[in-house]
Amino acid sequence: MAAAARFFVRGARSKLPISGVVPGPRSSFAAALLKLSPGSSSRTQRRHAAHFTFQADPEPTQYGPTTKMNMFQSVTSALDHTLASDPTAVIFGEDVAFGGVFRCTVGLRDKYGKDRVFNTPLCEQGIVGFGIGAAVAGATAIAEIQFADYIYPAFDQIVNEAAKYRYRSGNLFDCGSLTIRAPWGCVGHGSLYHSQSPEAFFAHCPGIKVVIPRSPVQAKGLLLSCIADQNPCIFFEPKILYRAAVEQVPVESYTIPLSQAEVLQEGSDVTLVAWGTQIHVLREVANMAQEKLGVSCELIDLQTILPWDVETVCKSVVKTGRLVISHEAPITGGFAAEISSTVQEQCFLNLEAPISRVCGYDTPFPHIFEPFYIPDKWKCFDAIKKMINY
């Protein structure tokens, strides 16, 4: 009933046809987000300085020739490879037929047909429910939730159905070929309904995998791994990076292992752990700590939230004796708490200082106060100073 009510309310607000491929109310908002994202040429963008500087990884050489792509183009490339190589693959969600509000599916309906790339009603519960059914029937189902903030109506379908389907049937049936994509995280001006980071809600649920990339190269490889994985996966895409992040991305299909963290910078004094956009904040913090404090930081991108790579993180903390974890989501019950608890249990005798969590506040995500809410480089740098002086 609630989903049906939202369908009609949203339709009533819009003067555009719901069944068409013309952007609806959310699409207009997303268009505004794109215009104001870092890297945009809009004059208005000057008033929205990003809280980070994107740092591209070295060009990968192990996957063949590369070409310049931003993050949404790398996602499109991954989806294109999947549709081309897997005749059972289908992509569906709100507005995906015309390319999606962030342009991640642009051109795919024209290339592969309306039976394989198609719009759905504005009903997240229905989108995921349909995806579960399609996956159980043998299709490779790729569902898009237009914003991660709107994934909650689908929570029951994800947690009580998708995550438990294999277990409850004794492995007779499964929906492991389901992948759910969603734009995620803060964007500079998204406010409470277009800025959330809900990964911790799903990290409490056995039976699914949760993945968050930091860059175009990681986005393509990790998304292809999620699609190929035999478990339902949630793939959160940092929307502030869709255009701000540009790298040389391999042209061909490739995969990056799930549940395997990556050590981006080796160090000896403090371990820094993050994922998604926050990796780029901590990269700058690591440089600041070295220049201003003479502190050597080891930076780890967790990449997969569930199941996460305990071994890599604990091995680093045993070496450094200190740990800072940072994410945009509220601090209470955030995934940093799980990491902190595990490290404390396994590395207690190696710790030189209490573990520090630098996260969002326990409030709804604000609009004009976003610069004060986000865990920026100064908050993270201050945490390192306190830890070193402990």
From TrEMBL:
Tell me the lineage of the source organism. Answer: Eukaryota, Metazoa, Chordata, Craniata, Vertebrata
Record's keyword terms, sorted: Mitochondrion, Oxidoreductase, Transit peptide
State the InterPro entries in the record: THDP-binding (IPR029061), Transketo_C/PFOR_II (IPR009014), Transketolase-like_Pyr-bd (IPR005475), Transketolase_C (IPR033248)
> Which residues belong to any copy of the Transketolase-like pyrimidine-binding domain?
69-244
What is the name of the protein in this document?
2-oxoisovalerate dehydrogenase subunit beta, mitochondrial
Q: Name one GO cellular component term.
A: mitochondrial matrix
Recorded catalytic activity of this chain's protein = N(6)-[(R)-lipoyl]-L-lysyl-[protein] + 3-methyl-2-oxobutanoate + H(+) = N(6)-[(R)-S(8)-2-methylpropanoyldihydrolipoyl]-L-lysyl-[protein] + CO2
**Compartment list:** Mitochondrion matrix
Query: Where would you say this protein principally sits, based on its record?
Result: mitochondrion
> What EC numbers are recorded for this enzyme?
1.2.4.4
Membrane-traversing stretches: none
Please give the subunit comment from the record: Heterotetramer of 2 alpha/BCKDHA and 2 beta chains/BCKDHB that forms the branched-chain alpha-keto acid decarboxylase (E1) component of the BCKD complex. The branched-chain alpha-ketoacid dehydrogenase is a large complex composed of three major building blocks E1, E2 and E3. It is organized around E2, a 24-meric cubic core composed of DBT, to which are associated 6 to 12 copies of E1, and approximately 6 copies of the dehydrogenase E3, a DLD dimer.
Q: Which GO terms describe its biological process?
A: branched-chain amino acid catabolic process; response to nutrient
Described purpose of this protein according to its UniProt entry: Together with BCKDHA forms the heterotetrameric E1 subunit of the mitochondrial branched-chain alpha-ketoacid dehydrogenase (BCKD) complex. The BCKD complex catalyzes the multi-step oxidative decarboxylation of alpha-ketoacids derived from the branched-chain amino-acids valine, leucine and isoleucine producing CO2 and acyl-CoA which is subsequently utilized to produce energy. The E1 subunit catalyzes the first step with the decarboxylation of the alpha-ketoacid forming an enzyme-product intermediate.
Is Amino-acid biosynthesis given among the entry's keywords?
Answer: no
